């Protein structure tokens, strides 16, 4: 029995499917299925069975879930405990849009100030409580996430607008990966506007969605300050809708003060500084080349 097998079981049990677990862990679906199969054979119990479109726990799986969750969290704590003299670790997860535009400049600025080994990853809002409680992530940045033992703090107010080419189409909606997250600002806006799923096109990243909008392919939701350079150049223009501008906030979510690692608390304090606020508002400004150290992006898998 390994921590990887237990982690696969916990994530499938909590998220309801192998696909969702694989996405949260940053691995392939066959890797999760293989780990889950090995654990089933080792324990002699199916642990999870399919019911409709979800995986549900067997009686044995229900008895195992709490124990397995604690073991996965303890595994992460054990890894940190044997790193004396090394920089503290910090893993920050964000929605796809923030990871694309903000993660690099923000974590680079933070590690210039603190001797921390910082990495980043992408997570949907529904995955955040499990990632934090399992100690597979230390801080989540994006939409507000709730859950037992979690604390969410607003760190930046922003506005969501809709943009498009001056003469572009208005019958298609172009989104990045965060547009598939119902709890994201983009997901919330699409619901407010009652946009049918048949009119939504999902792109590999937010930049690709905005580029397609600038080429006239449709409308794209956008965080106003992240798209300001395109608005200044005139390649994109704001498009009025009944729901925009939509006021929102970016939140930093962690475990409670007594449970989170010290690096997470230090990062929370850093997010309140003027320098961090300026970086989140104007990530395009960059930093001097001689001070740049790119953050490492990792999958959450052991």
From TrEMBL:
Question: In its keyword annotation, does this UniProt entry include Transcription regulation?
Answer: yes
Fetch the PROSITE patterns from UniProt. Answer: HTH_LYSR
Pfam families reported for this sequence: HTH_1, LysR_substrate
Record key words, sorted: DNA-binding, Transcription, Transcription regulation
Highest taxon listed in the record's lineage: Bacteria
GO MF: DNA-binding transcription factor activity; transcription cis-regulatory region binding
- Boundaries of each HTH lysR-type domain copy? 1-58
Q: Which family does it belong to?
A: Belongs to the LysR transcriptional regulatory family.
Q: What is this protein called?
A: DNA-binding transcriptional regulator, LysR family
């Amino acid at each position: 029995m390994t921590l990887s097998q237990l982690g696969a079981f916990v994530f499938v049990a909590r998220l309801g499917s192998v696909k969702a677990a694989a996405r949260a862990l940053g691995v392939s679906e066959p890797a999760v299925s293989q780990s889950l199969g090995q654990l089933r054979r080792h324990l002699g119990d199916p642990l999870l069975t399919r019911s409709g479109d979800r995986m549900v726990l067997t009686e044995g799986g229900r008895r195992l879930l709490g124990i397995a969750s604690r073991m996965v969290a303890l595994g992460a704590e054990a890894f940190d405990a044997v790193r004396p003299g090394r920089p503290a670790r910090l893993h920050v997860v964000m929605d796809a849009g923030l990871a694309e535009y903000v993660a690099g400049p923000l974590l680079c600025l933070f590690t210039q100030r603190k001797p921390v080994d910082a990495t980043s990853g992408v997570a949907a809002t529904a995955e955040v409580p499990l990632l934090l409680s399992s100690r597979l992530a230390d801080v989540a940045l994006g939409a507000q996430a709730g859950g037992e033992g979690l604390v969410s703090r607003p760190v930046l107010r922003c506005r969501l607008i809709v943009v498009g080419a001056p003469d572009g189409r208005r019958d298609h909606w172009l989104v990045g990966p965060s547009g598939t997250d119902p709890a994201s600002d983009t997901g919330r806006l699409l619901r407010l506007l009652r946009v049918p799923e048949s009119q939504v096109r999902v792109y590999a990243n937010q930049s690709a969605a905005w580029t397609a909008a600038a080429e006239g392919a449709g409308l794209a939701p956008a965080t106003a300050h992240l798209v300001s350079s395109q608005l200044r150049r005139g390649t994109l223009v704001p498009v009025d809708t009944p729901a925009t501008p939509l006021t929102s906030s970016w939140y930093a979510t962690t475990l409670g003060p007594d449970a989170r690692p010290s690096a997470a608390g230090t990062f929370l304090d850093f997010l309140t500084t003027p320098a961090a606020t300026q970086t989140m508002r104007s990530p395009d400004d960059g930093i001097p080349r001689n001070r740049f150290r790119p953050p490492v992006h990792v999958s959450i898998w052991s």
